[in-house]
Amino acid sequence: MALSLQRDVDALRDGLERWLGRPIGALTRPDPGWSCETLIVDDELVVRLPPLGEGIFPTYDLAQQAAVQGAAGACGVPVAAPIRHEPDPGYLGAEFLVMPFVPGPIPGEFTAGDPWLTGLGDDGDRRQVWDATVTTICDIHEVDRDRIDRLGLRQGLDAELVWWGDYLEWACDGDAPVRLVDALAWCAANRPAEEPEGALLWGDVRFGNIVFDAATLRPRAVLDWDMASIGPAELDLAWFLALEALQVDLTGMSVAGFGDRAEAAGTIEGRLGRRLVDLDWFEVFALVRASAISTRIAVLFGRAGERTRFSIDRDPTLAAAEARIEARTDGARSRP
Asked: How far apart are CA 91 and CA 85, in angstroms?
C-alpha cells in the first residue's frame, strides 16, 4: 500500500500532456513502493516524483539521482536511459524524472517465492540470474570516479555513519528506539580501522530493484538510486547479502541455484583486485540501516492511522544485527 498521498491522476495527465506536447493514452501506477511516486505513460515512459507529503527519506534530490544514473549508464551499467530531470513544478506540482519504460520481469521482495525466479527452467538459469546480478554490482563499483566525484554524493564511512545517525533521529522525531540507537553506536565504535578506496554505491542493492531480460537472464535496468553514495564496495555487497540471508533465516527457504556469500565475495574481490575488509561488520551495519528504514515506515503507518504489525521489539532485522553484535563481542572477550 502507499504510505503517502497520491496526486490526482487527471491533474497529472494534464501536466504530462503539456510537458510532452501531445496527448497520452494509458497512465498507470505500478504497485506503490516506499519512496517516490511512479507513473507509467503508454508503456513507453516512466515518471518519478517525490512523495506527496512525508516520505521514507528526508530529501529527494532528483537532479542528483538523474546525474548518478546517467553517469552509471555512460560507463556501461544497465539503466533506463536517457533520463531527464524537470525542475519546474508547474507541470506536476513538483520536480520529476522522465525515463524510458524498460519492460521485463522484476523479482518480488521475497525472492524464494517469486514466480518468475521459481518458474525458470532449472537451477542453472537461476544461477545465471545470480551471477549476472553480482557482475552488475561490480560494474557499478567500476564507474569512473571522475564522473561521480562532482555530483555531491556523501563519501566515506564517517559520512555514512553520521548520515544514518541523523536519519534515525529524523525518522523517529527525535525519539529513536534505544536498541536501534545502541546498535548504530556499536557500528560507529567498531568501524573498520582500514577503509578501502571509495566507489560508486548503488545503495539499495536488491533483486527487486532490477529489471531483467527474460531471454538472456541479465539485468536490463538497475532501478532506484535514492540511496546512492560513494564508499567502500563492502557497503553494497553487505546490503545485498545480509538482506537475502535474513529472508532465508526467517523462512527457511532459499532460491535453488543461487550462489552463496563466499562466491559473491570471491567474485567482487576478483574485480576489485583486493581482499574485502571486515564484511561481517558491514553486514551488521546493513541490518541496522534496514531496521532504521523499517522503523520509519512504521512511523508513517502510524501517522496515517494505519495498523501495522511492526514493532521494534519484534523486528527480526534488528534482532539479527544484535545477534551478530553479541557474537562478535563474545568472540572478542574469549580471545586471550
From this structure: 12
231 has which bridge partners? 199
Max Cα distance, the chain (Å)? 74
- The helix/strand/coil state of 177 is coil
Say if residues 267 and 138 touch (Cβ distance below 8 Å). yes
pLDDT in tens, 314-335: 899 999 999 999 999 876 655 5
SS (H, E, C) 64-110: HHHHHHHHHHHCCCCCCCCCEEECCCCCCCCCEEEEECCCCCCCCCC
Topology of domain 111-334 in CATH is Aminoglycoside 3'-phosphotransferase; Chain: A, domain 2 (3.90.1200)
98, burial (CB in 10 Å: exposed 0-12, middle 13-18, buried 19+): buried
Domain residue spans in the chain? 9-100, 111-334
Residue in the structure block whose three cell numbers are 507513473: 39
Homologous superfamily (CATH) for 9-100: Phosphorylase Kinase; domain 1 (3.30.200.20)
The H or E element spanning position 115 is: helix 115-118
pLDDT tens-digit readout, 87-133 = 999 999 999 999 999 999 999 999 999 999 999 989 999 999 999 99
285/191 Cα distance (integer angstroms)? 9
Q: Which of 127, 116, 50 is nearest to 85 (CA)?
A: 50
